[in-house]
Amino acid sequence: MKTMIFMPLASYHSDKVIPVHGSSFVGFFVCVSSIRDKYGYPRAELFIYSEDAIYTCAMTRDGGRIVFCPEIKFVHAESSTCTTEGASLWRKYYQYRNGLEWLHLESSLVFWLFVPIKFVFWAAKMFQTKNGIKCTFMAVRDAILRKFNLYQM
């Protein structure tokens, strides 16, 4: 199993640097030369949500090294949880579509098994939201078709 974004609680109290496969951009530090000379910028068409995991996982797949360094502390001013209540449709669209893109890139063999499960789960969450089912359908459709245009909803 690859160590990803979520670290065991004990990792935060360790003095050891831990290699990871990917990361959130929150608290992520990268050498400018890595961006300029090797990896470029994250995919602009992903805009928000999962673009960080997609970018950092691509770096490690290409031989880059990412580590979790528990002695570095920072404060993130934004909550990372996004509930259906109060979340705008465009946020949910990007969250769902880009999450499926990340899943496709990381586990293309099981991607097709997860698509119907994810669709039913997300549609159930969005059922009470006006245009929620349509938003979910568009996100899943666009992820399957690998269509990553920027939408205005």
Task: Please characterize this protein's 3D structure.
The chain is mainly α. It is about 45% helix and about 5% strand. The chain has helices spanning about 30-40, 50-60, 90-105, 110-125, 130-145; strands at about 20, 65-70. A two-stranded antiparallel sheet has the order 1-2. Helix 2 (about 50-60) runs parallel beside helix 3 (about 90-105), helix 3 packs antiparallel against helix 4 (about 110-125) and helix 3 packs parallel to helix 5. It starts with 17 loop residues before the first strand and ends in an 8-residue tail after the last helix. The model has no long low-confidence stretch (mean pLDDT about 85).
Keywords:
two-stranded antiparallel sheet; 153 residues; single chain; globular; mainly alpha
Summarize, please.
The protein has 153 residues and is mainly alpha-helical.
The average pLDDT value, as a whole number, equals 84
Give, in spatial order, the strands making up the sheet with the most strands.
Answer: 1-2
Q: What are the secondary-structure elements, in order, as H or E?
A: EHHEHHH
Number of strands: 2
The computed structural class is: mainly alpha
Rg computed from alpha carbons, rounded to a whole number of angstroms: 17 Å
**Morphology:** globular
Return residue spans where pLDDT drops below 50 for at least 5 consecutive residues. Answer: none
Approximate strand percentage: under 5%
What's the end-to-end separation, in Å? 37 Å
Biggest sheet details? 2 strands, antiparallel
Report helical residue fraction: 40-55%
Count of helical stretches? 5
